[in-house]
Amino acid sequence: MDHFPTNWGRPRNELYDQYNTFPLHQRPTNHTDTFTDGVQRTQQPIVTGTSVLAIQYKDGVMMAADNLASYGSLARFRDITRLHAVGTSTIVGASGDMSDFQYLQRVLDEIVTDEFTAGDGNSLGPAEVHEFLARRMYARRSKMNPLWNALLVGGIQNGKRFLAFVDLLGTTYSASSLATGYGAHIALPILRQDVDPNPDAITEEAAREILRKCMRVLYYRDARSLDKYQIATVTSAGVSISEAQKLDTNWDFAEKIRGYGSQTQ
Amino acid sequence: MTSIGTGYDLSASTYSPDGRIFQVEYANKAVENSGTVIGLRVKDGVVLAVEKIIHSKLLVPEANRRIQTVDKHIGLASSGLLADGRHIANRARDEAASLLSMWRSPPTVQALVDRVGLYVQAYTLYSSVRPFGCSTIIGGVDKTGPALFIIEPSGVSYGFHGAAVGKGRQLAKTELEKLKLSELSTREAVFEIARIIYLVHDDAKEKDFELELSWIGDETGGLHLPVPKDLYDEASRKAKESLENFE
Question: What ipTM does the predicted assembly reach?
């Protein structure tokens, strides 16, 4: 029985229900929603951050991201922090749409506060934060309105390191070294070579050097990157996000590049 | 009480001929019979303490907490009906979250207390509801510094340097007046507040009680947290000692 009187006595919608296959109770309504055409969903990211790198090492997890938020190919904002501490044992790094990331920061801060005010002695660790983000990202992509990010979630829980990835589709995976975006092509092979054989052998200083090396490679290769970056560490002592630091780079080789641009020979 | 039998105390929506609302006054009685709750606003923070009367030895220790956290930097202690206190705490959490999403900065204690006060007051307007049977002490540290308020069942709220409600409030207030609150540190205040709770507890009349202590200040990084175990133990030990010297 169709309980919507406006549907009574009206013909089937030939467009959708040509052979009368819809059961009565879910027959599509004949009228169209006035606002349907007005609803817009995210089609592309606007202000974007590039790669995030993260590795596991002896004392925990280390993550790096530069301070740039690009507007297309324009280096629009050069002082953006793309690493966000969640609670006392988790770090989230974001590439992709920065406004979506800022929204996620608010949502995460909200659930951390909710958990804190409950006062039951429990707190959110990296595994919970990652699961939450994965569910939220997948829910949004299922509404055809994704949060346009690729996120790395790292931290320490019950003395164990945690590092995992989640993106705008809700895809997740986990490894001892991870990278998003361009970094997944350029930096990840280097990270894997240095880290994956034995993360426990990597000291904090060595981990910092590995990330610095990869950030430098990315700065040389990735046109949406910046030589100003931050490194976050999560150890059993807690989360710390460094001040912005500058990469030292050497562009002497550029003189010798021939074959394109304004140079003829 | 002269009000009984006159018919003016049956509903919160009816005044008595001399302009009082008896249901609100009865709500205050519920508070006066409850364990003492004290709040101290000191130099660098706020300390809250509750004398929680244990009505059965079968209860799990630390169950039915009367001190709750409203926001990261705001704590709440209630005296009177416990369930009412919990309802107000839940409301206060919602209000704090709403103020945060509205202004995008951690709410001041004053702003939160104003909102919760309005909510409590709404329950004094209608015959279909009863006023809250609890007085709430809300304390926190915000951008204006330490802040401490009481919200009464009538919905009024006042700011205090030292606040006491519940059974032992009179004695507690005279003790509070002896303290130089604006010069005390939160750590010192923990000892004072524990001492006063032990002092006002009436051993002869009351059963056992549990001391609840929480603080917000520089030492907690601006977070509302329970007082750590070692400090708690030391404070209650000293409180018991001073009680013996007192008697």
Answer: 0.91
